[in-house]
Amino acid sequence: MRELADYRSEFPILAETTYLVNHSLGAMPRKAAERLAEFSRMWAERGIRSWAEGWWETPWRVGDQIGRIVGAPPGSTVMHQNVAIAEAVVLSCFRPFDPGRNRVVYERENFPSVRYLYQAQPELEVVVCEEPGEIAARIDERTLLVPISHVLYKAGEIQDVEPIVRRAYEVGAHVVLDCYQSAGIVPLDVTALGVDFAVGGSVKWLCGGPGNGWLYVRPDLSETLTPTYTGWQAHARPFAFEEEMEYASGAARFLTGTPNVPAHYAGTAGYDLIEEIGVERIRESSLRQTQLVIDLADAAGFEIVSPRDPARRGGTVTIRVPEFPAVHAELEARGILCDFRPDAGIRLGPHFFSTDDELRFAVEQIGDILETGAHARHIGAVALH
To answer: Pairing with 46, which of 75, 151, 155, 197 sits 20 to 30 Å away (CA)?
Structure first.
């Protein structure tokens, strides 16, 4: 078994930076460039024959690899461009909405892209819960969908999903679990959780890059629901070019148009590493290193926004210090890549290839910046990343 430190050579950016922003954009594996070169070679040398030689099937072949990471059975997970599209496909299954069951319930800390989708539907009544613990209590017979986050993005807090799923099941509502901040860093079994749908992407802990969203559909539902947000790849015989829609079986019926083939090729480099190491082993390393960050921040007198309880902590530690947007800008100028979120603080996200010395260095630099006032030159001129 390879030591985790041995994987550092797989990520070119680690030679130039202290990379602690994997909760936002996971470091690119070296082999992603090779996979993209393979896509380019096929396009250049095989041309249109590439569709039959692997391109067309990438949404479900790559989807199955994601499925293995998140506990989904084969044939239940497909790739999409992003979570907004995946959730829009799910939402389209229930049109026209029943006026007696048109309520959507989620937490205030839900990711904005998800919130915007449901807010934009005038036929839906959106219920926003101030605290995650309120969600189960707010689900009733009028509830259609419960689109929630497994790990809350600002503080990195793991949400207790089981009581929410149980309550939704009791009243006939459907849970859409956003696993963007958990897949690849927190052990996850969508089958065991019993969620109806799960969505996520590969930009973060999966190190799969942009354009690789994914959608899991509970197998029994995939045979009964008919999405109205659809396209020719969801047809049972797409190359027959028939005039009327006949849905494919399984999760393939939740596809839309032509797939994002180059993104799928690039993404598998990261998924291969996650599968090789195993999420349980990654989680063990993450818990130890996030605790180290907390201990270092405590010693420096910094405020911790993330959960201290390891059972509730995802892969991110959020630290709040004075003028944290400007402090973040100075960290970036020093080659320490992290990020911040409004009303939260600086987010540090080590991954399996991070070293303890990098974490010590990052926290030391935060202290140095505050002590010397080096962040003052960035105040008023910072931008979100």
So the answer is: 75
Residue 300 pLDDT greater than 90, yes or no = yes
Q: Report pLDDT digits (tens) over 210-225.
A: 999 999 999 999 999 9
Nearest Cα to Cα of residue 270 among 72, 62, 31, 71 = 31
- Classify domain 279-378 at the CATH superfamily level: Aspartate Aminotransferase, domain 1 (3.90.1150.10)
**Fold: same for 31-276 and 279-378:** no
Architecture of domain 31-276: 3-Layer(aba) Sandwich (3.40)
6 half-sphere exposure, CB direction, 13 A CA radius? 6
Query: What are the extents of the domains in the chain?
Result: 31-276, 279-378
Count of CB atoms within 10 A of residue 240's CB? 9
Name the residue with tokens 């497994």. Answer: 150
Whether this prediction's pTM lies above 0.85 is answered by yes
Task: Identify the helix (H) or strand (E) that includes residue 152.
Answer: strand 151-152
The model's pLDDT over 27-76, given as tens digits with 9 standing for 90+, comes to 999 999 999 999 999 999 999 999 999 999 999 999 999 999 999 999 99
Looking at residue 37, its amino acid is A
